[in-house]
Each structure stands twice: as C-alpha cells, then as structure tokens.
C-alpha cells in the first residue's frame, strides 16, 4: 500500500480542518479516551435531542489518522438519528476489523471509506477508532442520562 | 520417524512419532540413552516450539504495542495471537482474560497482591497442606502484610483433601476471602475436586484461585468447569519455554483488581503526581513482556492441541497405570498418594527401603538412577509442609508427559531394584 | 562476511562483520531493505544468542537447582555460568550480586517493594522528570502504600538534570530514603551524573537505585564507578532475548532486604505457620527462573565483550554524531535533548514541522518512514511526564546499536525530508 | 564414574554408622544448617577445650553423601587442635571445588579422600560440605564465645 492510498487527500484535509473541534455547550455527556500506547487523547462531547445527535464537539491530540477520523465522524453523525449513528459506528468498526478484506460501501460510510487502508495496519486501527469509540461511549451515557 | 518400536505403541498416541519431535530424547546420559521421567519438574520442548522462538527472534523481533513499524506490528501480532491461543486452550471467554507472567509463581504472587490488597485482620485465606511452596509463601507474605489469617486443608491417609475434617472445622466460612488450591498435586498426583471447593468458596463470597501448574499441561482444561476465578499455570511444564507463565482471570474480576507491578505498558496516563492504569490484561504486564516466550508457548499449545489433550491425558493414564503397577510390585517401595487411577495425575512419588530396613535417601536414589540414564527428582519437590505432614523429609518422584514410554518406566523399575541392592549390601 | 560496503566502515567496529551476525538486518520491509533505528526500544539479536537458546532448550533442558540428574546439573551449570558472565559484565564483586528478573521493570519493582518495605509518612523518594514510566510508577505505588512522598529532579532547557534547582530546593535531604535515577535517558539521550547524585544520596543515608536500561547495553559498565547500590537493566536491549532482566545489588544490601515474590527456590525452610528465606540472589528468584533466557543473555554478554564495549560505545558515538549533524541540517526538525556528544547516549528524539507550520504527528512520521523501510519509534516512549514537561505530547526517536550504519541514518534523513513534503502539501 | 567409585565402601559404612551422632553435652556452640534445594539438614554441636576440638556431635537428615561426610568429618577433627581442624576444612573444601581435577592427599584428609568422586558432581558438592560447613561455623562461634 502506498502512503497516498493510506493518507488519502480527504484524510489530510480533515487532519488540518478538524471539523467541529473545540468543545461546545450544551452537551449531554463528555468522555475522555486515551490510547495508552501512543498517547493519543480525545475529550468528546455529545448532545442528543429528540432521538437525534444534535451536536458533537471535541478537543484532541493525535496523529492524522485519529484526528481526521474524529473530524469525519462528527460530520457524519451530527443530525442523524441516534440509532443510525450507532449503526454507522458498528459499520466503521467492522471495516477497521476487516484486515483490509472488506469492500466498504461509500453510500453507507461516506467519507469514512477513506480509512480502508488503515484496516491493513493493526497498529493504526486503534487510531482510527479513537473518536468513534468516544462517540459511542458518550452517546450511550447521554442516553442513560436522558432516561433517568 | 519411520520405525515404530513395540515399546512405543500407546493406545492413545503414536508415541514414537511424538518422540521424534523432541531431539533431547535421543541424547545419551552417562553412556546410556536418556529416560526422562522428570516432566513434572519441567517438560521437554518439541522442535516446533524452539523453531518458533528462533524464527521470531531472528526474523520478526521488535518490541510490542509501542513499536508500530512493520516489525513492531509483526511482533505485536504474534504476541497477541499467542495470547488468543492460550486463552482458547483453557477455554477462556476472551483473549484479554490471559495475563502473561514469567512463571506460575509470579501469577500466584500477582493474585495474592491484587486480591489481597484490601484484606484486614480477621479475614481468612485458605490453602492446603499439599500445596507447592509457590502457592503457600505468597499467601503467608500476604497474611503478614495484612494481618489476615492463613488456614489450610489437611489430607487423608490416601493423600486426598480431607473434606470431612474441613467441613467439621468450618474451614471455609463467612470470614474466608480467598481459597487457593492446586488442581493436581505435584507430589501425590491427586486431582482435587476444585469445582466443589469453588462452590464452597463462592457460597461465602470468597474468590477461588486455582494453581493449574500440574493440571493444564496434562488434562483438557475448561476454566468454566473448574469453577475458578483465577487460574495460574506455567509455560515450561506444558512443552513451552521457560520465562513465561499465565494468570487467567474472569474479565470482570481482573478489571476490578488494582495494579501489581508498575511500569511501561500497564498505564493509561502517567503524571508525576499520579497515574491511571490500562484495562486488563495490560494493567498487569509492566515492562517489555516475554515476547518470544509467548510465541513459543503459543507453538506449544498448537502442538498439544494437534495431539489432542484427551489423547495426551489417556496416554499419561496408561503410563501412570504401568508405573503404579510396577512400583506396587517393587519390594521396599512405599507409594505416597493415591494407588489407583481415579482422580489421579501422572506425578508418582515414593520412598525406597532396602532389604535390611534402611531408607535410601532420594538424592542417592536419583544418583543411582541417573547413572543408568533415568532422570527423576529427589527432594521435597517444593512441598516441604506436605512431606512434614507425611512424616518424611523427602521422596523420589517419577513423572511423565506425552513422550513418555512404558519402556522408560521399565528402566526406572529395573534401576530401583539395582539401587535397593546397592544400598542394601547386596553389591 | 567478505564484502565490506563503504558505508559500513566505522573507526571502531567492523560493522559489516557485525551485521552479518544479525539475520534480521537482511530483511525487506515494504519491499525495501530494513533500516532498524529502534534499538532503544529493543535491540536485534545475533545468531549466537539465538543458537545458545535453541541449543539449551533442545539439548540441555531441565529445571535448575532442584533437578540434580545429569541434565539438571547441565542446566544449573549453564544458568549459574550466565549469572557469572552478567556479573562480570557490570563489574559486580561476585555472581551472587546478580538477581535475574523478567525485565528491568520487574527489577525496579523488586527494588521498590524491598527497599520500601519500611518506609513511613514523611520519608521521601526522589526520581526525575525524565524517567521511564518503569522508574516512576513503582515509586508512585510505593508512596501510596506507605504514605511516603515522591519528589523529582526537574531538567534544564538543554535536557539535563537541573542540579542547581535541586540544590536550591533541598531535593535530597535528611528525609530522603531512596534516590532512583536513570543512567541514560531513553528519550533525551542525556547521560546523568549518577556518581555525583549517588554521593548526595549517600551523604544523607539514602539508597541509590540506578535504572541502567539504556546504559548497560551501550557503555562499559562498572557498578563501583557508578556509585549505585542497586542497578536495574534488561536483556532484550543488550542483544539478549526477551523474558530476562537483572537487578545488581551490593551483596550486603541484598542480604538485608526482605523477600518480594514468594515461592519455590526462594526459601530456606517452609512450614505452614511460617517460612525462612534463602540468601541472595535466590531469595529474590521465586519459581522456575528464565533459564534459557539467562543462557541467551550470557551469550549476548559474550558477544558484546568480544566486540569490546569501548568499541561499541565509540561506534555509537560516530552514529550519533552523524545523526545529530544530519538532523540539525534537516528543516523543520526540533531536537529534544543535548545537541552535542558530551555525556550523551545514542537515543535521539525530535519533532518535525512542515513548511506550512504544521507539526507532523510522530505516528505519521513513523508510518511514512516505515513505508521506506526505516523503523523508528513515535510516541511518548513511556516517558509521558518528560513530554509534558517539554510541552509536547509525543516525539519521534531514532536509536542505534553496534550494527547501525551511517547509511541507515542517511536513509532516515532522506525519509524525513519526504515526510515533511508529504504532509506539507508538496506531494 | 561408576557408582562404586562415587559411593565407596567407606562412605556406605559411615552412612549407616553415623559416628558421633546424637547431640551431647557439654558444647560451646550449636548450629543448624540446611540445603534448601534438597532438604538436607544438620544440627551440630562443637565443644572446644585448650585449643582443641574436644567433641563434635550432631543430628542430621540427608543423603548418604552428607551423612557419611559428617560422620567422617567428626572422626577426623575430634581431638585435633582447632587450627588443624579448620585447615582440614579448607583442604576438604578445596577438594570439593576441584571439579574432579585434584589428587587428594590421604595423609592429610584421611578417609575424607573417599569423596573425591563427589567433586565431579556439582549438584552433590553441597551435600558433602553440609557437615563441614556446620563444623566450621560452630567452631568459629565457640571460639568467639571463649574469647568473651
Ligand atoms: C530507561 C528505561 N528504563 C526502563 C525500561 C523498561 O525496560 P523493560 O521494558 O525491559 O522492563 C526501559 C525500556 O523500555 C527504558 O528505556
Ligand atoms: C503445583 C505447582 N505449583 C506451582 C509451581 C511453580 O511453577 P513455576 O516454577 O513455573 O513458577 C509448580 C512447579 O514448580 C508446581 O508443580
């Protein structure tokens, strides 16, 4: 795999762009996730309303893969029904665990298909998943809060 | 291997084929072929295990987790694949339930330090008098640190846990926090009713630790059937290399335990004024782990799985039966532990007395046997309290594994007769 | 090796001959030859080390000490001979001053548990902000257990211990019980004035622990000259296998310390109601030790001694000089740690910024380098507090050993320029 | 080495004989020595008078080598000047550490030369030395007591 395939232009763009970064009010839950072996960190907030993801915002430090993945993730999930957003998480997780063996569906995953190359690099899969895992965690917590 | 010697035919295993995988078994010792009957001490290693280690060190070596370049990814992949193999071998629910340690002793100390962190005076820890020192001393040290009380199961005349006495004494009771028992005795060969005792422990809210050092290498293992919460075992007794052992634990239990050794790889965030820790298993694996050793243990587990642990166990039963029968017919031999095959592993210990009533010391037995190529262990086998309990200082032990033949057992029996005569004045 | 490539000539060592002993160095990675610049993470192993391990496991394997038959005597002899070799390598007064552990982290935890057994609130432990997590977390855990206070040396802008500030603050004082410092920083490369700090420690009656993980593999070592009371180091960074490390200690100090891990081989007499312990080093080696790994480490020490540690150190100075010069000429590189060769080891860490002012994350640097066969480490190198102190999250590190060539360094420098362009929009 | 060479007749005799065994009064010092790896133990008493070894007595458990060695040692040292007895200890230690490479002098070591074979077996050297080490330890302690 060439580096151009791994770091697709859209990844480099989002790495510098960091859509939705900077933590915002209001939010239903905030979580802090860390990849201990590499030091990547993200603090991520989720705001849910009427069964939808109203907002995602975050502060993170990390590599191009983790930063771009979080940025693209937030673009994809904001405005979606919670159930759809979580399904998207599962789709992305499946792609990352496929060891390069799956053909991602751009209709489902949108720009997140750009990470297909990462799934061939076990050491980097955690990077691509950092923001997504934080999103799922925060969403489940925010849902639990709402239910109370 | 093409020639199948009559003595190397077993109902369960093609022992000749197995033996051809173990170069050391073709060695001479003292000018005669080796008969290695010390597998409970450490097992021999098949070439596949040694090749896996060499290949890893010479072709794929890098540090794990933290090294992310190609070699690092290969090393990490091999290391974590080994964890998954070991997990499957003992029937763990997931690979993350396996913590790699340096040996069973470290695994038991890890259990004692983490489970015992909150113990207080009045709390009780229960072991048995038949334990290996590695399942006694960590608990003694824990009791000293915390003021908790160490209690223990006695044994019956046959060499089994004395359950009646334990029940009468209320050994396991509402003060009990931890019960730690060996699955199979390394001296008596007794297979303990671990699941039953785990029931007692769980009924009073205690944690059940099992020392599987002599069980996992020889018997099909299912942590669920054992009823254990934590299970310690060691690589070098299961055809794997030295330098590696494992602690299996129920994931939720592991996740609730504090760290033990501190250092690289077991952390989440380190600040000078305080740190947070990684989830299991990494929380308990400080520093660079035994990487090549894990790869070797993975190969050992593959090898055993290919033989089939049912077949290995059946083969060892045959060997043990032959040994028990032979010893019962050898004058002067006193067997320690169960004489029949019910709930019995392959470690067989005994004492030897000459015709003129003189007890031959196990070191001297070992020496005479060694001069005939037969390797056994003489001593207290790291179970001095058990020997005290039996009223003896030491014993001689013969033990087997998948590569052991009845012909080797016969050589042992012959050499014992020679030893008896030698020290009995008939020389 | 017969052909000597021009790029593989060094003043100090015949690097081409050295390289021919390391099969992994002929490997391809991503279709290009490997340039392994991650030796501070783990070193590669010469064939002699791997052969020693294989030969031991396939021809001489038995348990040690307790097994007294011929194989047991061979294994014990090989294991104790390895101890003597390691002792000589660091200038120990006697072999019994070497305790084998599983890695440097265990050695440091052993030091923390045994030295720290009697610590009380008010007592102080001193480390530095440049330590590896393995020389921070064990002391944090000790402070938590005992109520003692953890304090630390800061660093200067150049990346050296800030001795002036430490003196002004009275960092080492009459409350100090333990000072634990790294000899050579695994990130900055700084060689610390350990003997001088040992003088401070001894003047107030404190014990001096030295983390030699990055020193012993690269520099001639004399425990007497270091002034240490305890010295931890690790096999896998000094051309030896994984699964083994060592703690050297002054014999009288070791003899005064309580046990740490309990189990087989560390005991004198075990009774159910209490045990006594063996003298050092066995007191600290519970259970079956890493036997084959010790043999491998012994072979590594033989290999290094044959090269000559002075020559190894001189060679690494050449490599480091080439690297420092090259990096200083690479745009966008910010060096962490000393820029000159005075009191400087071979670990060189840096950050990389693109022409448009964007800091490239070390994982991305590592990935791009890996695609060109160059293996480096990106991350916090198990030294997060140091990175915090430097105001950065992570860095990229290149590091060398006896087999490293200036040609490999040149490939790194080229790949860094490519990386900078790649992320700087110049692709 | 044949077993007959290792276990010479004199060793087997002393193994069964155990000269001077059974702890006796009076004594100047008593010590307890253990070989932890094998469980051999000896409790040994020494009585000194007028610069001589007046008595040695002991209780021990252990192998033929350790028991016979203790028995022969006691025969050799009882009645000797302390300095000569300690020199004998050193001679015997040197023999044991010779790895089978020394020719022991029967005029000096007496029956203790029978242990020459043991010096070729590193694992058994500790057995042969157990009683001798206990004797030296007890003698040094008894001397210290006398000096007080
Ligand atoms: C300075 C330093 N100390 C301690 C360690 C820990 O060594 P190990 O991982 O072998 O325990 C390392 C290496 O990782 C190190 O570089
Ligand atoms: C029953 C039992 N427990 C624990 C151990 C200790 O294993 P290791 O020496 O590998 O730590 C052994 C073997 O020596 C054993 O037989």
Report what the structure shows.
The complex is a heterotetramer, with two copies of chain A (148 residues) and two copies of chain B (427 residues). With 148 residues, chain A is α+β, with helices and mostly antiparallel strands. Chain A has one domain (3-143): Alpha-Beta Complex (Sufe protein. Chain: A). Chain A is built from six helices and three strands. A three-stranded antiparallel sheet of chain A has the order 1-2-3, covered by helices on one side. In chain A, strand 1 (29-35) and strand 2 (40-49) form a beta hairpin. Chain A is globular, with a radius of gyration of 14 Å. Chain B has 427 residues and is of the alpha/beta class. Chain B folds into two domains: 6-45 and 308-425, Alpha-Beta Complex (Aspartate Aminotransferase, domain 1); 49-306, Aspartate Aminotransferase, domain 2, CATH 3.40.640.10. Helix content of chain B is 38%, strand content 17%. Chain B has 14 helices and 18 strands. Chain B has helices at residues 15-20, 47-60, 70-89, 104-115, 137-146, 163-169, 194-203, 223-226, 251-256, 291-307, 309-328, 362-371, 384-390, 406-423, and strands at 28-29, 32-33, 35-36, 98-101, 124-128, 149-153, 176-182, 207-211, 230-234, 245-249, 267-271, 274-277, 333-336, 348-353, 359-360, 374-375, 377-379, 395-398. Chain B has a seven-stranded mixed sheet with strand order 4-10-9-8-7-5-6, sandwiched between helices. Chain B is globular. Classes of the chains: A alpha+beta (148), B alpha/beta (427). The complex binds pyridoxal-5'-phosphate (PLP) (2 copies). One pyridoxal-5'-phosphate sits between chains B (103-105, 132, 134-135, 182, 186, 211, 213-214, 234, 236, 245, 382) and C (263-264, 287-288).
């Amino acid at each position: 795999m060439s580096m151009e395939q791994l770091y697709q232009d859209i990844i480099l763009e989002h790495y510098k762009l960091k859509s939705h970064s900077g933590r915002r009010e209001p939010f239903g839950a905030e979580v802090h996730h860390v990849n201990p072996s590499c030091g990547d960190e993200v603090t991520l907030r989720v705001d849910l309303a009427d069964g939808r993801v109203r907002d995602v915002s975050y502060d993170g430090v990390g590599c191009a893969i983790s930063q771009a993945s979080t940025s693209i993730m937030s673009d994809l999930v904001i405005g979606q029904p919670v159930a759809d957003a979580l399904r998207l998480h599962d789709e992305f997780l499946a792609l990352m665990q496929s060891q390069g063996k799956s053909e991602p569906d751009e209709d489902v995953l949108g720009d997140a298909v750009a990470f297909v190359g990462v799934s061939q690099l076990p050491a980097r899969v955690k990077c691509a998943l950092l923001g997504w895992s934080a999103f799922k965690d925060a969403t489940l917590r925010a849902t639990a809060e709402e239910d109370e | 291997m093409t020639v199948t010697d009559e003595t190397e035919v077993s109902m369960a295993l093609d022992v000749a084929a197995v033996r051809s995988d173990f170069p050391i078994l073709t060695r001479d010792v003292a000018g005669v072929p080796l008969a290695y009957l010390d597998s409970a001490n450490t097992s021999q290693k098949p070439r596949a295990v040694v090749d896996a280690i060499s290949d890893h060190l010479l072709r794929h070596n890098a540090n794990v987790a933290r090294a992310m370049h190609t070699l690092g990814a290969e090393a990490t992949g091999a290391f974590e694949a080994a964890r998954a193999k070991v997990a499957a071998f003992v029937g763990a629910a997931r690979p993350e339930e396996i913590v790699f340690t340096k040996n069973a002793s470290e695994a038991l100390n890890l259990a004692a330090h983490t489970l015992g962190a909150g113990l207080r005076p009045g709390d009780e820890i229960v072991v048995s008098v038949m334990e290996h020192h590695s399942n006694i001393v960590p608990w003694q040290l824990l009791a000293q640190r915390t003021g908790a009380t160490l209690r223990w199961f006695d044994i019956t005349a046959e060499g089994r846990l004395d359950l009646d006495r334990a029940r009468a004494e209320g050994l396991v009771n509402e003060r009990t926090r931890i019960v730690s028992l060996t699955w199979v005795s390394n001296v008596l060969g007794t297979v303990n009713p671990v699941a039953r005792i785990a029931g007692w422990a769980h009924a009073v809210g205690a944690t059940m630790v099992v020392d599987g050092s002599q069980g996992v290498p020889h018997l099909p293992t299912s942590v669920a059937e054992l009823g254990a919460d934590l299970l310690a075992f060691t690589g070098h007794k299961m055809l794997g290399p030295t330098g590696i052992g494992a602690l299996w634990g129920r994931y939720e239990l592991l996740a609730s335990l504090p760290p033990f050794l501190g250092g690289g790889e077991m952390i989440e965030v380190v600040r000078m004024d305080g740190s947070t820790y990684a989830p299991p298993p990494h929380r308990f694996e400080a520093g660079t782990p035994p990487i090549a050793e894990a790869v070797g243990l993975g190969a050992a587990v593959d090898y055993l799985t290919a033989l089939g642990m049912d077949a290995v166990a059946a083969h060892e039963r045959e060997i043990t039966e032959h040994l028990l029968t032979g010893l019962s017919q050898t004058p002067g031999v006193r067997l320690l532990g169960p004489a029949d095959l019910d709930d019995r592993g392959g470690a067989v210990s005994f004492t030897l007395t000459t015709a003129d009533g003189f007890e031959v010391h196990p070191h001297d037995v070992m020496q005479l046997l060694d001069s005939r190529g037969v390797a056994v262990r003489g001593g207290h086998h790291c179970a001095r309290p058990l020997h005290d309990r039996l009223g003896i200082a030491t014993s001689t032990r013969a033990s087997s594994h998948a590569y052991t033949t009845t012909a080797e057992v016969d050589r042992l029996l012959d050499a014992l007769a020679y030893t008896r005569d030698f020290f009995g004045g008939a020389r």
